[in-house]
Amino acid sequence: MKFSESWLREWVNPAIDTQQLVDQITMAGLEVDGVEPAGADLPGVIVGEIISTEQHPDADKLRVCQVAGLAEGLQQVVCGAPNARPGIKIPFATVGAALPPGEDGKPFKIKKAKLRGVESHGMLCSQTELQLGEDNSGLWELPVDAPAGVSLNEYLALNDQCIEVDLTPNRSDCLSIAGIAREVGVLNKAPVKGPEITPVAASISDAPSVQLNAGASCSRYAGRIIRNVDVTKPSPKWLQEKLRRSGLRSIDAIVDVTNYILLELGQPMHAFDLEKINGGINVRMAEAGEKLALLNGQEITLEPDLMVIADAESPLALAGIMGGDPSAVSEGTQHILLESAYFDPIAISGKARRFGLHTDSSHRFERGVDYQLQAHAIERATQLILEIVGGEAGPVVLAENDLVPTPATVQLRRRRILAGLGFSLADDEVIDILTRLGLELSATDDDGWTFTVPSYRFDISIEADLLEELARVYGYNNLPTTTMTVPMAMESHSEDKLSLTSLKKGLTNRGYQEAVCYSFVDAKLEALVNPEGCPIPLQNPISADMSVMRTTLWPGLLSAVQYNANRQQPRVRLFEAGLKFVSPDGSLEKLVQTPVLAAVVYGPRADESWFGKSEAVDFYDLKGDLEALLALAGLSQFEFAPGSHPALHPGQTAELRRNGSVVGVIGALHPQLQRQLGLEKPVYLFEVVQAALIETSTPVFAPLSKFPEVRRDIAVIVDRDVTAAQLQQCTREAAGKYLTELKIFDVYEGKGIDTQRKSVALGLTFQHPSSTLTDEQIGASVDAVVKYLEEKLNAAQR
After folding, report:
1. Is 642 helix (H, G, I), strand (E, B) or coil?
2. Total Cβ atoms within 10 A of residue 632
3. Is 500-694 in CATH node 3.30.930.10?
4. What confidence tens digit (pLDDT) does each residue in 517-548 have?
5. pLDDT of 744-755, one tens digit each?
6. 3-state class (DSSP) for residue 343
7. Which end of the chain is more exposed for a tag (fewer CB within 10 A), N or C?
8. Neighbours of 74 (CB within 10 A)
9. Cβ within 8 Å of residue 487, ≥6 positions away
């Protein structure tokens, strides 16, 4: 439900500002989805009047207009709109005015200009240029009584806010200004005063014949004939603006009035062209195979469980959902039949979705409409129609059967208030809250009260509903609280740190299994893996192969790989989180215990399957798994650099650095060590200090751009010793802030390339947060990247 604040304040006007109003509505259980201005600020845009026009001497489609509105006198404006003509009132953007921002996000400044040699002092505007409507067919023609020279902001009362409320399905009573106003009035103990609706006396005797043949599905139907209406008359500006600010566009005066009643009172209505109805109105269930062309151009085949509004010959409308096109009001309509009905929610629920529809009417009828509102809505609509398009109204015909819902009564016991809410309320406060909500106190006894529920509150049927209303109006934030006492200290969890569990889950999700190895390892294996280390020997080892403290987690993981490979397990993925014990001289005094995370991969990349050959795992598989962990802590803070380790292959070893400090190492097991361990296939390992992985930054929300991404690919030739990290760093430095993704997708060395050089292909993806990037902007960024790579890395574009 979307509505304007000014419209709501016509009904109820508490002494609170917009933010307080929004907070109050939300805390009452009607969640506010958003608040936005009713229109852009339009400084310098006034109501202008075209006094005269003449053809532009050098352009067939341009007119030279003399426009009144400024104190300095007539202003000459060149305009190409087809409806520019003398005597009309239009929005006039004077020199210096600022129109709403376009796709580039910048306001459009109005300046003096020459169009085909003729000076133009301003601009005459359409609805779309002011972002105040969807009509861009020509100038926006304002009512003839619009005062020339008045600011458009002032004339349209644009100092207003549009509030959108996301209602739960049980609160259909708030799908109207009347319903929201009732809530605001109750919460603020403020009077609610809607428009004065007096019954319109019949001036003609014409009355529709109405038959109800759908049982409880339609138990009440009101209809009224109005003759001699002038549909060519437009809706007044106040009506169009209220519809626009509620998310509906103006169509014609009759449709606008029915939409207005839907928003104001919550009663869906429809108007038929009386001359297109054959006989009386019959509300009935459809016959199998009947056809109906809807207002949206869709032709549907009806089924017996669908309810229709029909005449003596055929269906006219799909009841509660959408009217039919053959009987719709058109420009030639002179006589109309207004209808206002009550449909049982069960009869309408789900029927619109069967045809891919969701209309404002079905949205309300599915949830429940006040079953006593129909005649009242007819009178209000008649009042507005006669004021706007004239006509002569007949009497209101109200047809109903014995299945009309009756007001529910609900008992509330005093003891249930304490038991259900946890606190007691004084009797007078209970009665005050519930009667302000519209409930009527019908009986009182020693146990409590009995209340009669108003016809618009479908959601109140049991005692618990009344308890909810008491808590809601009293204020959830005012309910007393009791502090829970727990005999334990709760550990704090900072968002600046990841948990070790999250790192472990990251690896298990990628196919690893956790290993738990002993901290004691074989001295010989330890010497092979880390010959430069000084492991601390145990004074009383369990066995000879568990005689020293590990200086790295790799000996235990390699032993596990050996164990699995010897037992016909060709594919191994293991990780371990634990302590390594490092002492520069092998003494306990200088011992440092460091938590690290290590992993090992061995064998084929994927499990054996029928769809393809198995490929051996390589360095980049393990590096990709490690990068997935680094992404949790912020991948941009890490970099890989060529490194060395006595247990790793000299040409396939990299150091992992964070902010310049080495925090880990990754690489392929040295072939000589691989042979000594009796492993037939290459082994890849990494080990990283846990603290480097766990430390992260507090997550910050960044809105997603609604505008398209654009990708540009470039290939550059660089020296063979230039690393991918260098290329990526230089590219990011030169590409600008709209570069959102950078990929290296190809590396080529060979024929056509210098033997000391290589070709690297880069994929650059750009995206602007608030507009669509132009080819010029993207081209400039790509050119800057190429030039920067040439300067920094001696690169040449291929």
Report:
1. strand
2. 15
3. yes
4. 999 999 999 999 999 888 999 988 888 888 99
5. 999 999 888 998
6. strand
7. C
8. 15
9. none
Integer angstrom CA distances of residue 271 from 222, 268, 311, 398 = 12, 11, 14, 16
Cα–Cα dist 216/405, whole Å: 9
| 409-477 is a CATH 3.30.1330.60 domain | no
Cα–Cα distance, 203 to 381 (Å, whole number): 16
Q: Whole-structure pTM over 0.85, yes or no?
A: no
The closest alpha carbon to 620, from 687, 688, 684, belongs to 684
Q: Which residues contact 160 (CB under 8 A, 6 or more apart)?
A: 4, 5, 6, 37, 38, 39, 245
DSSP string covering 115-160:
ETTEEE-SEE--HHHHTS-S--SS---B-TTSPTTSBHHHHTT---
**Domain 45-155 = CATH 3.40.50.720:** no
- CATH architecture of residue range(s) 210-400: 3-Layer(bba) Sandwich (3.50)
Q: What is the pLDDT of residues 102-138, one digit of tens each?
A: 766 677 889 998 888 899 999 999 988 888 888 888 9
Domain with CATH 3.50.40.10 in the chain: 210-400
pLDDT of residue 423: 83
**For range 229-252, the mean pLDDT:** 91
Token duo for residue 245 = 């600010």
* Start and end residues for every CATH 3.30.56.10 domain found in the chain: 2-38+160-188, 409-477
Q: Which CATH class is domain 2-38+160-188?
A: alpha beta
What value, to the nearest 5°, has the Cα angle with vertex 171 and ends 169 and 175? 100
C-alpha 182/C-alpha 13 separation (Å) is 11
The DSSP line for 533-570 is: --PPBPSS-SSGGG-EE-SSSHHHHHHHHHHHHTTT--
> Among 343-347, 457-461, 606-610, where is mean pLDDT lowest?
606-610
Mean pLDDT of 622-629: 92
Q: What CATH number labels 710-797?
A: 3.30.70.380
- Integer Cα distance of 764 and 738 in angstroms: 10
User: Given phi > 0 = left and psi -120 to 50 = alpha, else beta, which region is 259?
Assistant: alpha
